[in-house]
Amino acid sequence: MNSYFSSTLFRKTLAALSGLFLVIFLIGHLIGNLQLILLSGEAAQKQFNEYALFMTTNPAVKILSIVTYTSIILHILLTIILVLQSKQARPIGYAVEGGGENSAWASRNMALLGSLLLVFIILHMKSFWYEMHWGAIGNDPSGNKDLYTVTVVAFQNIWYTAFYVFSMIILGFHLSHGIGSGFQTIGLKTRKYLEPIEKTAILFSILIPSAFASIPIILYLQSL
Amino acid sequence: MADLNLTLKIWRQDGPTEPGGFKTYDISDLNTHMSFLEMLDVLNENLVNSGDEPVAFDHDCREGICGMCSMVINGRPHGPLEGTTTCQLHMRHFNDGDTVTIEPWRAKPFPVLKDLIVDRTPFDRIIQAGGFVSVNTGSAPDGNAIPIGKDISDDAFDAAACIGCGACVAACKNASANLFTAAKISQLALLPQGQTERVERVIGMVKQMDEEGFGHCTNTGACEAECPKEISVDYIRKMNWEFHSANVKG
Ligand code: HEM
Ligand code: FES
């Protein structure tokens, strides 16, 4: 049993399960965020701040958020362990690299894409999650913490907005390989479902990041 | 039949612990109907005639079935063609004046023995860890004694087409042996003869694969793309199931 948990196949499966859970989390997170742009002005402020309060206090959300934090930590730890382990498997590289002709770029650069995502996640949590929990932010007219205004102000900055859009492109590439790869790893990408799974994976890897990126872009444009 | 002139950059290394490096050779007036190995034979004849050490490379059947002719040609294991071993690659796929870089398989578990020859005994040890069925000796059993459906026998046969050449390891950015191991596990797991030792087989072979120091699988698909027998990565998916259920059921 011990060799089971230390095997590359077990660790890879756990990395895939945590990664796929993070995809589900992204969908939920996206739906929440869309409230920033679906309404406007005071209605958006009221709605979004009530939602933010709900997300920080509801016990069911608490449990989900623990699963999410666990997934992120597991995913990062396991992929780093696996990537370092595999680096050792080829101490001398090739003079001529042929990877471009037999595999997709994103599939060969998951660690680079993931590291950029990690930078994004840290900055993103500092900006909003940390502020919401421990920052000194004002209240809106209904007396709720005004995360809405924090967000709107943040995206008045073109560079901050650009960083978000760039990070969503990185996410798109990570997902373009990650979703299909995760389904293959956990064994659901059978020959019969290969095509539909690959197509849906690519569709999601375009749709999720574009919808996310549209929020800072719209907030920035509204601030002009 | 056009004659062909090439510049070859070949990895030369005297022994496992000696430092290696690329040497450049010009070779001219090649017949385009030659195989890649015959081209190397010509080079070696020239080298011997001029008193130099010939290039050491593995080869045996020269008909695409033994899996010996391992080398990375311009970054591609077994060269640029799909579903082709080096011995089945012909010089007509190269252009006059090309520079061709030839390197050994690169993986820590496959140390270079000399020039282009690597030690592939880690694959033998993976097989010894479970890639077999134990049978009593005696007269050969009747071929049709155990009926097997055509779809299953086809699937098993596709996995059994693996010639153990190691191109999957050479192509993979992680030097992973997942495709080889998965093909060898699947070919037996699919058939009735493989059921008795099914659980120990997958556990033993995966353990050995990890212990040899091969990398993990990130599903880039490079192995399937470079496999001379076009073995499908679907066997890796099957191996994952096989491995988890063997460990859970015990
Ligand atoms: C929202 C964030 C993220 C999502 C939704 C996500 C999703 C995924 C998925 C589904 C996979 C495929 C897993 C497999 O096939 O085994 C994957 C692979 C990977 N992820 Fe992430 N990931 C995220 C963040 C990160 C971060 C922050 C890092 C790094 C620090 C990272 C590094 C990697 C690496 C290196 C792989 C390839 C691992 C392998 O295939 O063995 N990811 N990701
Ligand atoms: S020499 Fe046997 S497969 Fe090429």
Question: Would you kindly provide a written description of the structure presented here, covering whatever features stand out?
Answer:
The complex is a heterodimer of chains A (224) and B (250). Chain A has 224 residues and is an all-alpha fold. Chain A is elongated and about 60 Å long. In chain A, helix 2 crosses helix 5, helix 2 crosses helix 10 and helix 7 (110-134) crosses helix 9 (158-185). Chain A is 79% helix and 0% strand. Chain B has two domains: 4-113, Beta-grasp domain (Ubiquitin-like (UB roll)); 120-134 and 146-249, Fumarate Reductase Iron-sulfur Protein, Chain B, domain 2. In chain B, strands 2-1-5-3-4 form a five-stranded mixed β-sheet. Chain B has a two-stranded antiparallel ribbon with strand order 6-7. Chains A and B meet through helix 1, helix 2, helix 5 and helix 9 of A and strand 4, helix 6, helix 7 and helix 8 of B. The complex binds protoporphyrin IX containing FE and FE2/S2 (inorganic) cluster. Protoporphyrin IX containing FE sits between chains A (12, 15-16, 19-20, 22-23, 26, 75-76, 79, 82-83, 110-111, 114-115, 117-118, 121, 174, 178-179, 181-182, 185) and B (216, 218-219).
CATH architecture of chain A: Up-down Bundle
End-to-end CA span of chain A: 60 Å
Dominant shape of chain A: elongated
Q: What gross morphology of chain B would you assign? A: elongated
Low-confidence stretches of chain B: none
Chain pair sharing the greatest interface: A-B, 44 and 48 residues
Total beta strands of chain A:
0
Reported for the largest beta sheet of chain B, the result is: 5 strands, mixed
Q: Report the span from N to C terminus of chain B.
A: 62 Å
How is the main sheet of chain A built?
A: none
- Could you spell the SSE succession of chain A in H and E letters? HHHHHHHHHH
Bound molecules: protoporphyrin IX containing FE, FE2/S2 (inorganic) cluster
- How large, in whole angstroms, is the Cα Rg of chain B? 20 Å
CATH domain class of chain A: Mainly Alpha
Strand % of chain B is 5-15%
Q: How many distinct helices of chain B?
A: 8
